[in-house]
Every structure is written in C-alpha cells, then in structure tokens.
Amino acid sequence: MCDATSNDPAPSTAENQAELSQTDSKTITFVIPCYNSAEYMDHCIQSILGVGQDIEIIIVDDGSSDSTPEKADVWAQKFPQIIRAIHQENAGHGGAVMAGLRAARGKYFKVVDSDDWLDRTSRGVLLARLRHFISTGADVDLVVCNYVYEHVLTGSRKVIRYRGALPMNKIVSWDEIGLFGIGQYIMMHAAIYRTQVLRDSGLELPKHTFYVDNIFVYHPLPYVNKLYYLPVNLYRYFIGREDQSVNEKVMLGRLDQQMRVTKIMAESYALPEDISSPRLARYMFNYLMIIVTASSIFALIRGDKEALEMRKQMWENIEAKSPKMAKRLRRHPLVWGANRESPMGTAAAKQLYRLAQRLYHFN
Fold it and tell me: 66: which of 18, 214, 308, 319 is 20 to 30 A away, CA to CA?
C-alpha cells in the first residue's frame, strides 16, 4: 500500500479534502528518510512498532538504488494501518523530511533517521504523555526528550540531557526556561513538534543539502508557546560510520552545504529584535552562535582559498540581515576565537574543535 511517486499527477481537490480530513487522526507521525538504507532500516522501523495503532510511520524512499524501495513496500503491505511508503526522486534529507511533513496525519511529528532507533521503554512513555496532551486539549507545541550518542567505533555512549535548562515533566513557556549549556541545544534527535506548528511556521528545508536538521529545530521555535521536557533517553543516534554526514572528512567536503544552512538560519530572524520572548531570543542567538562557530572552524580546518571565501560570504550574509546581530556574534568569545586571522588563532580554533569532539563524540 504505497503513496504515489513524485512523478504522478497532483491529487484532485476532492482528494486533497479527503487527505485533510484525516489530519490529526494519529497521535504521532514518525518519518524515516531513507536513501540506500536497506542494510539498517529494518532495525529503525522495528524500534518504533508495537506501541499501538494510533501512530503512523512514513518511510520516504529518497530515490534509492538498492533494495530500500522494495523493503519499504513490504513494510507498508505488512502494516497497512500504520506504515506508508513514499517513493520520490532523490531530493536529499531535507526533501525527504518535507515529503513526510506534507503527508503526515499525526498530531505530533518526529523524524527518525534510518540508521538510528528509539528506545522502546522511552517510546512508550512518550506516547502515553502525547495521548494525555491530546485528550486534555493541552496543545503542547514542542516535546523535548534526551538522546544518546551511540558511537560504533569506540562503543561509548553519551547521553544529552536538558536538566537545568528545562523544567522536567512540566508544561512551560519560554519565559520559564533556564540557561542551556553548549552541549544542550535542542537537536532534531530531541525534538517532537506538534505538526501544525511546523506547518504554521512555513518551514522549508532545502533539497540536496545535509545538516538541515538545524533549520528544522531552529526555524519553528518562535511559533512554540508551550513546551515540555520529558527526561527519558528516547533517541539513539548512531555515530562513527565513515560515510556518515557528520564524519569530519565528509563535513569538510560538504562545507558549502554547512554554509547554506548557516545562511538560512541567519536570515530567518534578526536577533533579538524579531523575537518577543527575551529568553527565547537568548537561546536562539546562542544556537546561531554555535552554528556560526562550527562553520568558521570547518573553513579554517580546510584552509583553502574556496573555504575561506565561503567564510567571508557567510559574514557578508549575516551583516546584510542585521549589522547589530553580526556585531554581537563577532564579540562572542567562541566566534571571535574561531575567526582570528593568525596562525595562533587558527591553531586555537582547531584545538577547541578537537576538545568538543572528545567531550561529545559527535563524529
């Protein structure tokens, strides 16, 4: 039971109305973007199943050339009330997520990459809480859970928690959040958005671009009024494969895509002017600061003329959006350290990156 491919004609108005009538008929939509994922997608899907009929799983086959399309169809045929398969021409991770968002019928929305998985016990706790929100009309806009780096090479695990930054097990507004540590930013792995919030925000992820998960969690934040921190270790983030997008060599080769994401984030909002909540504005500024720092450091690590020109263009884009925001960013110690025009500054920036690697095992 498969959805039409992207080459098929658009649905009629009547079909669109029928599709809209099914919106929110499920508690949550789990979207699994798949590109040549046949080797590991089964584990991901199995980790989501078994929690009830009020969930849906949308497998987005993003133009795969292995047996991913066939596997997706088999799963959809085996669980037709829960699983749907979408086949499309390759559009990259962002294009696959957007295809899932357009098709989602769940009240809530969660992306699970095909080489990652969910902890079963934590998943059950999450579903119970979401059902409670829906039954009581709480309309929580963003649920945050812990996630775990599972490093394949070292066998190490690093749990990212939000204690101190977010009150636990309590519906709160942005005015009640605390200070986030450098490793505590809300990543895609941690976030479960209310689907309508994503749609209302006008979220658009660029096609054929990696690292769009930062846009996914950043852009909708001003549309969130209520958030909730559920302190369970839900998401297991597989790390350490050589062809993975966060592998350092891969990231250096895709610096242009990292810079594209940085540009989109910087152009989304002038901070703090565009954000009504001072605490949210502070959080978003610090998140953007980390992205700008990372982009600068990767440009320095590459060190070639093209990379340094991309860094220069990044700053021109930020200045064009908001000279005030650019000035504040440049004054931040991390950003300043990552952009020092000297051999000593470059060495210090690289050491900072290596330290972060050892602490957080993010690639």
Answer: 214
- Residue 146, class by beta-carbon neighbours within 10 Å (0-12 exposed, 13-18 middle, 19+ buried)? buried
Structure tokens at 93: 């991770």
Helix (H) or strand (E) holding 234, with range, is strand 227-239
Confidence band, pLDDT 50/70/90 cuts, at residue 9: very low
Please check whether residue 93 is in contact with residue 79, taking contact to mean a CB–CB distance below 8 angstroms: no
C-alpha dihedral, 47 to 51 to 54 to 55, nearest 10°? -10
Dist. CA 265–CA 268, nearest whole Å: 5
C-beta of residue 91 within 8 angstroms of C-beta of residue 9 = no
Alpha carbon distance 156, 363 (integer Å): 12
Q: What is the mean pLDDT of the chain?
A: 88
Q: What are phi and psi of 83, to 5 degrees?
A: -110, 135
Rounded to two decimals, the pTM is 0.88
Q: Is the pLDDT of residue 1 over 50?
A: no
**Residue 360 pLDDT level (bands cut at 50, 70, 90):** very low
Q: Which residues contact 160 (CB under 8 A, 6 or more apart)?
A: 146, 147, 148, 149, 183, 184, 187, 189, 190, 360
Residue 332 is given by DSSP the state S
Which band of pLDDT confidence, cut at 50, 70 and 90, is reported for residue 354? low
